[in-house]
Amino acid sequence: MSSLTHLTIAYLGMIGAIAIWTWTVFSRSKRLEQKIATLENILEVDASSGNKTEVEQIENHLVGDNADND
């Protein structure tokens, strides 16, 4: 094979690799957005019911610990 053929195959391989990488990044991003939306919905339900969420409990605990240090 000539060097031009090798170069063509290398460029096509690079384009294919970039396409696969881009697809995986976007699919992971979509899954992450779905997980974030689910967590936001869970936190909204907990907040509307009047119960403290785990996040609020942790924040209160951390604020209490910091107040003891001052």
Instruction: Give the number of helices.
Output: 2
Report the sheet with the most strands, covering strand number, pairing sense and barrel closure: none
Give me the strand/helix succession. Answer: HH
Would you report the number of β strands?
Answer: 0
Helix content: over 70%
Return the structural class: mainly alpha
Percentage of β-strand residues: under 5%
Summed up, what is this model?
The chain has 70 residues and is an all-alpha fold. The protein has one domain.
How does this structure look, described?
The protein is mostly helical and 70 residues long. It has one domain. Helices cover 89% and strands 0% of the residues. It contains two helices and no strands. The model has no long low-confidence stretch (mean pLDDT 81).
What tags apply to this protein structure?
70 residues, mainly alpha, 0% strand
Layout: helices, strands, pairs:
Elements (H helix, E strand, L loop, with lengths): L2 H46 L5 H16 L1
